[in-house]
Amino acid sequence: MLSYIIRRVAQSALVLFVVGLVAFSMFRFVGDPIDNMLGQERTMEDVERLRGQLGLDQPFPVQYVKFLQEAVQGNFGVSFRQGRPVAEILAERAPATLELAMVSAVFAIVLGIALGVFTAIRRGGFAANFIMSASLIGVSLPTFLIGILLIYIFSVELGWLPSFGRGEVVDLGWWNTGFLTASGLKALILPSITLGLYQMTLIMRLVRSEMLEVLRQDYIRFARARGLSDRTINFRHALKNTMVPVITIIGLQLGAIIAFAIITETVFQWPGLGLLFINAIQFVDIPVMAAYLMMISVIFVTINLAVDILYAFIDPRLRVSA
Amino acid sequence: MKKQMLALALLMTTTSLANAETLRWARSGDALTLDPHSQNEGPTHTVRHQMYEPLIIRDTSGAFEPALATDWAPNESDPNVWVFNLRQGVKFHDGADFTAEDVVFSINRAKQPNSDMKELINSIVEVRAVDDHTVEIVTDGPNPILPANLTDLFIMDKGWTEVNNAVDVQDFEGGEITFATTNVNGTGPYKLVSREPDVKTVMERNEDYWGRDQFPMAISEIIYTPIQNDATRVAAMLSGEVNFLQDMPVQDLDRVNAVDGLVVKQAPQNRVIFFGMNQGGDDIEADNVDGKNPLADVRVRQAMSQAINRDAIKQVVMRGQSQPAGMIAPPFVNGWTAEMDGESSTDVEGAKALLAEAGYPDGFSIRLDCPNDRYINDEGICQAAVGMLGQIGITVNLDAKPKAQHFPLITDGKTDFYMLGWGVPTYDSEYIFNFLVHGRESDIGTWNGTGFDNDDLDAKIKSLASNTDLIARDQAIAEIWRVVQDEQLYIPIHHQVLNWGMAENLDINVDPEDQPMVKHFGLN
Lengths: 322, 524
What we know:
The structure holds 2 protein chains of 2 kinds.
Chain A (H helix, E strand, L loop, with lengths): L1 H29 L2 H5 L6 H11 L5 H13 L13 H36 L4 H15 L2 H15 L12 E2 L4 E2 L4 H34 L2 H9 L3 H39 L4 H11 L2 H29 L1 H6 L1
Antiparallel strand pairs in A: 1-2
Chain B lengths: L1 H18 L2 E6 L14 H8 L6 E3 L5 E3 L2 E6 L6 E6 L13 H11 L13 E8 L2 E6 L18 H6 L15 H4 L7 E7 L3 E6 L15 E6 L3 H9 L5 E2 L7 H5 L4 E16 L20 H10 L2 H8 L4 E3 L13 H4 L6 H10 L7 E7 L6 H13 L4 E7 L1 H9 L5 E6 L6 H9 L17 H10 L5 H17 L3 E14 L2 E2 L14 E2 L1
Parallel strand pairs in B: 1-10, 1-11, 14-15
Antiparallel strand pairs in B: 2-3, 4-5, 5-7, 6-7, 8-9, 9-10, 11-17, 12-16, 12-17, 13-17, 18-19
Helix pairs in contact in B: 8-11, 14-15, 15-16
């Protein structure tokens, strides 16, 4: 068991190293940060001086090794655009993204499971059919379009909800939250629907098909024969057994929600990590791009690692073969 | 008695309401820092201008307007010295008096190595306080346009800066945060209340401002929020969450204008858009002609200019929001003339004839490098130019890239045909010549990607800096322009038009430098 875990961790570290290497080798195609950093009045000496100062005159493997050396000590360098330590900026932006991701995930899970169960039980009914067709919109429309559509309806036409930003946030010192103010909560609604809609549809369709599968099985038939109520059968016996694959998917999609937040955050000017990353790309802010990509890959790798290890606990066969 | 009290209370609430007008202001980017001498960049200056003041600012027509200096003139006995008389009775936000030593301190601070403003004032050798309200600035030779370089040079309080250990300009690239990066103590019309970078900056009216009665100053509170996405920014205005908008996308102008209570105002911007051509190289890479450089022939360059239909670009690409150009100087700039700005014409047959005369009857092919996120509809303009040049037989392959990849091509000399836009903060042609016409050297001609290098002209350009005889200087400027025009050094396209969206109750004039000064904002 221990050797299995050690091997998994070593593999994860290798993945992280390669992701970083690929990311770093691509940075030079994004452009030259120097032009953005110095105004149009700069001289060639300024350019050379700054390039040397930032270490951009060195070949990229050297830059990458330097980045790794600093990164393992928790130092991600200084943002070219904001002139502040990257770690500090990431810490400042993380609450916005995590709160948004959390609300979207809750929205997607609760509504996704509820609608999935409903459409499975009421299979063929008018409401179920309507929900199934409408859910196609969630899968097929791109996120930014959904966001703009929601802004148009609820901000411009109806004027109910804000079109951008986080509203008033309360600073708790180590965390700033939008949960404690009315404007903060209102500001969360549209972005979290936009971000969670795709995952919700996914979960709903998965729950529905798993549920239909389970409802056909013998033990459900026996349960009915025993005269149990529909409620008990549907929720105690059927739903429980559909949840195994659903939980796996939810776990994996959590990483996707944080990573996909880029588009939603840009549309809603949500001051989180995704918006930070988009700004970094436009400005060629290499330290921020590098730190963000590493962070996202750490999240994905950790989730996958945890899932792998959990599987090993659940399924002894995996342990043996490993 | 009770009734009277009630009436009084009502009266008080209504008057305070009349005085409370919040400017909810959005544009695409945020200030990078609040340190007055770090980062010479438009949106950063805009935010500072509300709280700090330079000696001189510009009004919306581009003319000088006294700020912390009341008047200024060269010293009659010594042409190397400018004398500035300072405004009396001015106080910083913390109550300290504004005196000549603050000016001396601030200009010296702006000359530090970490300062981003140092290039603009590199002619200054010494700054001395003659008395509490007079300052003399000594330059390394006569400098007739020194005042034009001081309009973004903000004055800090010496005492405050020293007490808070912010004497050194922040080391921006090194990630340094100083007290002055996040705090403000200026003399300006607004005071900083709070700031979250990239999210929100709040300012309130400075009731003790020296010009409180002189300027409208109708806005009592400013909430500045950067909103990057074009559609979201416009939606925020349509839904009423924002009542003043910069960086208005041209396709949404009609949409905003059609809404009751909103208007869009425009003015020609201090930015001209043009194409540059590498005429210096013997053979260039981006074309299909071997052993020769077609762009080295002035007739080819003229033919290309004549092929461009600027009115069509204005109507189709810019939706009317541009002013066709014949020279690469914005109309406010000293040296600009209406005649030269009208010199570009469209003549497809004439262009074909010129090409044939130059030895390219069947044209040639060339790559055009173009940014796609820098100027208004930049890629669209290039696409239009591709079609227009195709009409005279020049096959253009368009390569459009983000600005971070496009501009290094020009400064590194890796493009032979490119788009560039230019604004002139000093409002004087010398600035254009220094960067775009003078042969490329390490500290001059840095944006001249044309390979054009004319020693006589270079000498003439250099002499402008110290020519105090303004009539002779203007004469020299006109002569240089004549060469630039006759050589068809660049292909001018148009002057950008600036659009600001605003609520109808706001009385705002559009500033050609895209630099709103909220103290000038009134109410209708």
